[in-house]
Amino acid sequence: MVNRAFLSDRTRQDFPILHQSVNGHPLVYLDNAASTQRPGCVIEEISRYYREDHANVHRGLHALSTRATQLYEAARTRVARFLNAAQPASIVFTRGTTESINLVAASWVTARLRPGEVILTTEMEHHANLIPWQIAAQRTGAQLKFLPVTGEDGAGVDWDRLERLLDELPVRFLAFTHISNSLGCVNPIARICQAAKKVGVITLVDAAQSAGHSPLDVQAIDCDFLAFSGHKCCGPTGIGVLYGKSHLLEQMEPYQVGGEMISSVTYERAEWKPAPHRFEAGTPHIAGAIGLAKALDYLDRLGRPAIESNDHLLGRLAYERLRELPGIRILGPRQDRAGIVSFQLGRIHAHDLVAYADQFGVALRGGHHCTQPLMRKLGLSASARASFYFYNTTEEIDRLLNTLRSAADYFGA
Amino acid sequence: MELDELYQSMILDHARRPRNFGELAPPAVRSEGYNPACGDQITLYVRKGQNDTIEELRFTGQACAICMASASLMTVQIKGKPVREALRLEREFIRSLTGPDDLGPALGNLRALAGVKRFPQRLKCATLSWHALEEALNQPAGPSEGGGPQG
Fold this sequence. Notes:
The structure holds two protein chains of two kinds. By secondary structure, chain A is of the alpha/beta class. Chain A has two domains: 6-30 and 303-411, Aspartate Aminotransferase, domain 1 (Alpha-Beta Complex); 44-301, CATH 3.40.640.10. Chain A is 39% helix and 17% strand. Chain A has 14 helices and 19 strands. In chain A, strands 4-12-11-10-9-5-6 form a seven-stranded mixed sheet, with helices on both faces. In chain A, strands 15-16-19-18 form a four-stranded antiparallel sheet, with helices on one face. Chain A has a two-stranded antiparallel sheet with strand order 1-2. In chain A, helix 2 packs antiparallel against helix 10 (286-302), helix 3 (63-83) packs across helix 10 and helix 4 packs parallel to helix 5. The two termini of chain A are 36 Å apart. In chain A, 52% of the residues are buried. By secondary structure, chain B is α+β, with helices and mostly antiparallel strands. Chain B has one domain (2-137): Sufe protein. Chain: A, CATH 3.90.1010. In chain B, 38% of the residues lie in helices and 17% in strands. Chain B is built from five helices and three strands. In chain B, strands 1-2-3 form a three-stranded antiparallel sheet, with helices on one face. The longest helix of chain B is centred in the middle third of the chain and has 16 residues, at 83-98.
């Protein structure tokens, strides 16, 4: 076993919000899969931008507008580097993962699929990577098919079945998550995308749970589209990213129309700018993009391989410790899991458990985690979830365990 | 502890051993309460007797302690009561939970749910079964045999 220091030792002091008491106890923030916290440098950068550089982008000729435009486009270049995209033009700024996926659903899938063709996804998707495909299927007459989640507690998808399915069905499009927000399993994205590419299927990776946690190289993965949100990787809310291969983005019609995305307009018609600006109608979230770039700097200083192994260590530790509790049912696989652990403790409803933990300063998520069909399949109406980030400590896992033990006594589980 | 206000012993008792738990066959009417945000789900069965009274009511479901206890306490409180009185109790209960007033003596054991006032995010849990009750009482009586109306 390698002797390693946890990243919390050198990162915790960077996050002002973590140093507070909640209900008389030091905060233990374990709801990182819903939203991570921001380091001081991101908060400062957003504030600095508004104090010193703000104006609208891509239209003004004055100094502030020039600066704001430079910072905004530098943020795009920063995101491209973060994903190892071949060029910044592959990066579209959106409101978040949800908007990124809706954009692809409207501008690529709905525009191209024909009746009978298949949109393939999995049974573990977040509603954001499910409902856009339901709508796209309804509008085009395409069929929506699912790779099943196997195992009584949702071990994951059996990806060995993928190639056969791709052979048997007229699949045009494959959308799947990198890391499941409720099961915590990690899908082999490069292998999946390569299998799809062999048969000409276009792929979209939902990287909401992985972008801030794992190294991502879109050229090595060879996905066609990839989506993530700023607020799940130390950045601001309201900013997200769609990566798309340039030749695909260039073929796509805009998703929204208005200012900033046109090259010329008459009263009768308009022509679009090239991608990515074609997809950024209206004034964008400039401060969000700049704050996101700062967050990505912060993450890359820590190193995503280090963040990933730290996550996996905390996830595995939490999983093994939770298993000690009588009556616990933990969702997801035992091996190869990220720092996300969903569980049901005895007969205690997740809502009661989360309310109880909150009284001891422990922030958990309780509910269906925006995966209602998956919870139903696993026979649950809700579950509780602890999700970790690099600033979490092993002492916080102790606090979690103590709180769950006393909750079991309290509710008589 | 503040939590003890929310989870009074009567609440925990009713949540662990809900009263009037089970189904009723038609002509009892049936209604559903569902909170998609947290997955609380209650099915309520109500059979009216003569003189517009609530002769029998039962419920099934999967829900948090607050929701289960509220449903259980509700069934105990209104069984045998005239429909009009049950609806008055419902209004009084919801008004007290959402307004400035305390839960008054007319609410009887339902006062055990007073702690919900300090946990506004649990208001929906406490009122779910009551909304289902209102819906059930506003339905016409089901057919005397065969499937009842689906809520």
